[in-house]
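Human: Here is a favour to ask of a fellow structure person. Comparing notes only helps if you start from a blank page. I am asking you to supply a protein in sequence and C-alpha cell form. Write it directly below this note and I will take it from there.

Assistant:
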Amino acid sequence: MEDSRTGTISSAEPVDFEPATDRAGRIETHGADYIPDAERHGHPRSLFAVWAASNVTYLNIILGGTMILLGLNVWQSLAVVVAGNLFWILAGYVSISGPAAGTPSEVITRVMFGIRGNRVVNLTIGWLVGVAYEAINLSVGALAGFALIERWDPKLSFGIKLAVVLIIAVVTFTISVYGHATIVKLSGPFTWVLSACIVVLAIFIFQHANFGYETPAKYATHGWALWAVAAIGFTIIASSPLSWGSSADFSRYLPRTASRAGIIWWTAMGGFIPSVALGALGVFAGTVVDMTDPQSSLKALLPGWFYPIFLLVIIVGSVTNNVLTAYSTGLALLAAGIPWKRSRTVIFDAAIAVAITCYGLFISNFFDSLNNILELTVPLLGPALGIYIVDMILRKNDYDGRKLQDDARGGAMWFSGGFKPAGVVALLVGAAVALLCVDTDVYVGPIATALDGADFSAIVGPIIGGVLYAVMSKSRMRKELFADAGIPA
C-alpha cells in the first residue's frame, strides 16, 4: 500500500507492478541513483532465477573437472566444490543491503571507503576485473560458437569468427542495456531451458562416470600435501561467489520491507545449487575424460545429436553470466564518477570486452595469462567482501540511500580527503596478507610456500580485511550513528 502523505510503500507485502522506470522490454532509466519506495517492486523469490541463470554455465563444469586434475579423488573433489560454493551465503547476505539502501553495492561502499577511495575500488575491483571476466566469458561462448559452425564449415574464416563474437556480444549487452526488469523477466526461461539441457547432459555423463575413481598412485597426495591441494581447489571454486560483492545491484528494487531471510536464501541458493550441480558434473566427467580440453573431451561422452545442443548451452550460459557482470560493471563506472547514463556505460563495457576478446582469440595467447591474472583477484575480492559484511553488521544494515548519493567535497561520505582510512587500510592490508598466501602458476606467496603450496587466500583475505575494518572503524561509526540519531557522542 502507498502512503498518500509520503508516497512510500508502507505494506510488508511484495509489490507486483513494474514502474515506468523499470519495466521489462524498456530501457531502465535508473542508474546508480536512489530508488524511491514508490518504485520498489518484486518478490525475493525472483532472485533465485536471476542468480541461477547466471550460474548454469560451462565454467562451473570446468572448475569441477579441475579438482580431478589437481589430484583429488571423487569424494574429495565433491567436498571441495561444496565447501568453496558456501561463499554464496555471503553474497546472499550482502544482497539485503540493496533494499535497505535503495542503491547498488557500488554506491553503498562509499560509506566504507569514502568518495575518492570508493572510486578507486570501483574502477579496479568493480570495473577492470569485471571487464576481464566479461572477455573470458565472451571468448568461451565464441569458441563454442566456432565449434558449432565448424560442423558444417570446417574452414572457418576470420570474418565468420568475428561475426560470431559480435553476435554473442550484441545479444549479451543488449539485455544488460535494457536492465534490471528485463534481466529478471528473462532469467526464468533461461534457467529452466538451460537446466533441462544440463539434466540431459548429466544422464550421458553418469552413464560413463567412474564413481569409484581414485587418483593414480603417482599423482596421489596424502597428509598435509593433500590439504594443500584441497586448499588450492577451494580458492579456485570460491573465486566465483567471492566476485559477487555487488549482489545488492539486483535486489535494490525490492521493497525495504521484503523478507531479509528470503532475500538471503533465494540469492544464495540461486548461486549455490547450479554451481554445485555443474561442478559435480565436471568432477564425474573428469573421471573418464581429459578435462584439460573439456569441450573436445566431453564430445566422446555425448551422442552426435546432443553435441550441438551442448555447444549451444555453452554459448547461452556465457551470455547469461555476462549479462549480470556487464550490468554491474556499468554501475561501477557510474559510482566511480563517470557522468554517463547507465545504458551508455554498458555499451562502453561491450566495446572494451569485445576488443580484449578479439585480441585474445585472434592475435595472442592472452587468455592464458588473463586466467592466471584473474586467480590473483581473490586477494582483492576477499577483503572487500569481508569489509562490506562487517560494515553491514556494525550498522545493522541501516543505510540512508539518499545520504549515500552525496558525493560532494566535505559531505558525509568525504571522510579524510575523500578516503575513509579504516576501509582503505583494511583493504590494502587484507589484500597484502592474502597475496602472501596465494599459490598460482604465475606467483606463489611466501606463506603458501611455507605451507607446501596451500592457498588460504580465500579465507585469510575476508577475515583480515573484516576484522581490521571492525577494529579501526568501530569508534568512528558509533559517533556517526549517534550523530544521525541526534545523540551527542
